[in-house]
Amino acid sequence: MFQLKRGRKPQLLTRSALAISLACGAFTGSAMADEIVHDAEYYILEAQHGKKWAADDKKMDAKLAEFRKKNNGKSPNILYVLVDDLSFGEMGIPELNYIRGSKTPNINKFADESLSFMRMYTEPSCTPSRVAMMTGRHPVRNGLGEVKATVAGEALAASEVTIAEVLSEAGYNTVHIGKWHMGDIAEGYPHNQGFDYASFPIHQQVLLGFMTPEADQSHAMQGWHADSGNDQFALDDQFKPGGLVYGIEGRKGEMAREVDFTAGEEWTQKHYDAMNEKYQRQTIEQLQRLAKDDKPFFLQYWPMIPLDFDRSSFDSFETSNGGTGVESLRILDGWFGEIMAEVNRLGLAENTLVVLMADNGRFRQFDNILGFSQMIYRGGKVDTSEGAVRVNAFARWPGMIEADKLAGDMIHITDLYTTFANIGNATKYIPTDRVIDGLDQTTLFLDGEGNGRRDYAFIYSGNTLRSIVKQKYKLELPAPGQPGVSAKIYDLQRDPGEESPMTEIALWASASYQDMTQRHLMQMKKYPNAPVGKDRPYSGIENLRPESKKMVEAFMSWSEQE
Amino acid sequence: MFQLKRGRKPQLLTRSALAISLACGAFTGSAMADEIVHDAEYYILEAQHGKKWAADDKKMDAKLAEFRKKNNGKSPNILYVLVDDLSFGEMGIPELNYIRGSKTPNINKFADESLSFMRMYTEPSCTPSRVAMMTGRHPVRNGLGEVKATVAGEALAASEVTIAEVLSEAGYNTVHIGKWHMGDIAEGYPHNQGFDYASFPIHQQVLLGFMTPEADQSHAMQGWHADSGNDQFALDDQFKPGGLVYGIEGRKGEMAREVDFTAGEEWTQKHYDAMNEKYQRQTIEQLQRLAKDDKPFFLQYWPMIPLDFDRSSFDSFETSNGGTGVESLRILDGWFGEIMAEVNRLGLAENTLVVLMADNGRFRQFDNILGFSQMIYRGGKVDTSEGAVRVNAFARWPGMIEADKLAGDMIHITDLYTTFANIGNATKYIPTDRVIDGLDQTTLFLDGEGNGRRDYAFIYSGNTLRSIVKQKYKLELPAPGQPGVSAKIYDLQRDPGEESPMTEIALWASASYQDMTQRHLMQMKKYPNAPVGKDRPYSGIENLRPESKKMVEAFMSWSEQE
């Protein structure tokens, strides 16, 4: 961690104290019970731009009120599509399709109809990004900076207030379809976190698309399948996970049920393919159902492809790249096209905000299978490079968001929480007793480029702060135990690959970054991080298979849960 | 070099022999006196696609004849703008402007009006690319694979037939403005190579923008300026070049004159700035003059910026990147906008083909000054990576080329020679006694994507073949003396950064690449490379300054010239 010891760098503390006292009014104000509490950095900016922002807020309120008036008093529907593991440049920019040998014509068309965010930051991997979006908070604040691949007995805590809960309070119908990946206990399931209905796998794609006999056969996976080798000296048959729960469905207030899978059955690529197709079908069905209702809807579709590791599940390869991820992205692009066609066919275009984005960068360890690689930014999922946390993101809302525009403003996935809440007239349901990292970016959405409220992002890896982006610069913190002077600072425009840390920037920027870090940690001390939810794995599922029960028993025999 | 020894790899020779006999009819046909001779690889493709191409050629002939009929019997004007040292992605793609913190709005607009070539290959540095465009031949064929930075006593030979000569024969007015960089002797000057008029510096920007007192002052240059250090033990005052000739102008059949510089004067950044501005102004003036003439024109403008190394020459920095190259690109973009506005104002839009492209990738050794860096492709100028030889290229011709389209077909800078000749109804003036590497890509220009005639490119570094691109694969030849098995093959779509050579491809592609190499070398043996032009440096200039004469004398005292 960055060095911030008192006494050793008194001049820096003085600078920090000054900066914070500058923002002091706002800082104190934030403690009022009815105001959202943001991270310290926000107040530094608010002190400089607050007057303009307050005026803009009024303008946005008026715009949204006018919209509701025209829309029978209803807030707009929100359709949120979150694509897995796709680095910036892989969708929405036709020229880059040629570089990659990929095809995303429907998403490119959608980009032309949308505001494209050029600097959308996420968390560096699936669970943290999804938690950030659902809670408006960095997952370090609720113990979900990282999650185990198989059973964990952990999940998004009931005490967190999700965007689905916030929008439900404001009268939205809420549905979640597809990947969830926020833990394997009841309190974390989407239908217990504000969604009226949810259809989802508890786990992620490694367990669904990799831990299959086909993946072993095609060299994508090794060692997992029972037939893939016979080690006579292996004594522990629980080391290879078995008895996993796959797809479940649930309704608010009810137990979940595992679906489409029976006791003793073996999970295969065919199951994974069928699951993907089902979520696509369910999304269309839900759109049709929700469109008829009097209430506005919040529908989120989080597909699992383009993560697909098995070549045998493709009839033919239509991209010249030919990687399973690139090919699967082409299929997803077609699916997304179907969804948008359905949105338009159902007459939802003008009263539905559609946001499409990726959750984090590419799963780079499988480049040779998936067909992706570094495009512009170095790195990918799990590290904290721009390749991990910069993604394509698009927002379409005909009549409210100007089409075919780009915005260079910074935005963070947590901002969707606050922005969706504001657009859904639900800001008053956001909790005010904790830090909300998300900022209200309604003005950026509706008035476009130059109206962003963020020029910073904190990047955690697991529960450790590892990088800080401010304006066009990025600080990579030293590894734990390394001295502060080994921090690296990059100019992201001159060096998007983060290859050459620049001493010439560090000479002035180190002190400013230290101030930022200190303010961030001070706020975290004032509003301590909350614990993760803990329980018996697979709690809240009424039809657990015998093999799943067995696995849970084994887990519980050594776990600290219960 | 790649191993092609007889006897050691007989099976490969057999494969080659087969492949060549397949294409044998075309190969023999190419020896006919009135047909253009291409490289062997072309005939392999012609054998597979010749019928369609012949039909397309007829269609193109009819299209062009129809155009001429509507255009008072005249062929179209051709305006060719060649930008220096700019890697793929730096212009014409708005999203990537945000990545770089750059601004190219006029070029982006031009791209929207154009066909954008997604796979334009060039030679890896300035002289070779310019020679390739002017002669339609890889510069290895005329001894210009590399050129010295200061005086060389060498140039493009008089025996080469440039596109300016070809178009002149067909009745074009021809003008060259800006960088030339094809040698420092009379026979190589543009006004002796087919241009009616030319205004240009003999040398390149290192001598013009770097060898200045300002560059020494700003750390961009070291050791060159007389005041930059005092080495009392240095005995040779000719080691630092002095007495260079800067800007010259000439008319066909006349001696050249050095302009805007007097004996004893010191070359400074101010001279460089003024020279850049003059070439821009002259381009506009020439456009206005040529527009009035009865004959069609071929005007090429080869600006020297965005190569600019001195911060003091900018009044302010308007890009967020702030590098001198990125800032200078913004200025060039404005200048290009002026030129296109003038083209439109003069009523030339519909009868002028405008092609804009870069000559090769970035000058990566000066990234920290210029503000560029790896965007998508690794490497830059001088190496043979995609970053060196892949550039943005755009062709606009309202009414004849469909606007706002992309083409994934491969095209090579030599193809402009043959394509411009065909569009200018001048193909019959292309020499048929030598290999022309350029292919006629008129169908690609006029009918767009899918109509290209090339799926290969040979990439030379200096006079050594170093890489071969075929389809989406790229072979990097082993360094001289290294065994053939150390050749690396990349999948350019899965690995645009050429970071991971793939054995899985080499297993089948090595043999095919060996065949290609052998065919290429066989054709070179049949049509041997021509010598470079040689003479006394600065010959053909009527007003050489005394210091220039002195430098020439010193050079001649040890040179083999004369």
In short:
2 copies of one chain form a homodimer. Chain A has helices at 10-22, 24-29, 40-70, 94-100, 105-112, 126-135, 163-169, 205-210, 213-217, 269-291, 324-345, 367-370, 386-389, 415-423, 442-447, 503-526, 546-558; strands spanning 77-83, 115-121, 154-155, 173-178, 197-201, 247-251, 257-258, 297-302, 352-358, 390-396, 405-412, 456-461, 464-470, 473-476, 488-491, 533-534. Chain A has 562 residues and is an alpha/beta fold.
CATH class of the domain at 75-219 and 241-456 and 533-558 in chain A: Alpha Beta
Number of strands of chain A: 16
Q: Please name the two chains that share the biggest interface, counting residues whose Cβ lies under 8 Å from a Cβ on the partner chain.
A: A-B, 34 and 34 residues
What portion of residues of chain A belong to β-strands?
A: 15-25%
CATH topology of the domain at 75-219 and 241-456 and 533-558 in chain A: Alkaline Phosphatase, subunit A
Q: How far do the termini of chain A sit from each other?
A: 34 Å
Largest sheet of chain A: 10 strands, mixed
Please state how the strands of the largest beta sheet of chain A are arranged side by side: 7-6-5-4-8-1-9-10-2-11
What's the average pLDDT of chain A?
Answer: 92
Radius of gyration of chain A in whole Å, from Cα? 23 Å
CATH architecture of the domain at 75-219 and 241-456 and 533-558 in chain A: 3-Layer(aba) Sandwich
Number of helical elements of chain A: 17
Low-pLDDT sequence parts of chain A: 1-32
Helix fraction of chain A by DSSP (H/I, runs of at least 4)? 25-40%
* Helix/sheet category of chain A: alpha/beta
CATH superfamily of the domain at 75-219 and 241-456 and 533-558 in chain A: Alkaline Phosphatase, subunit A
Oligomer: homodimer
Principal-axes shape call of chain A: globular
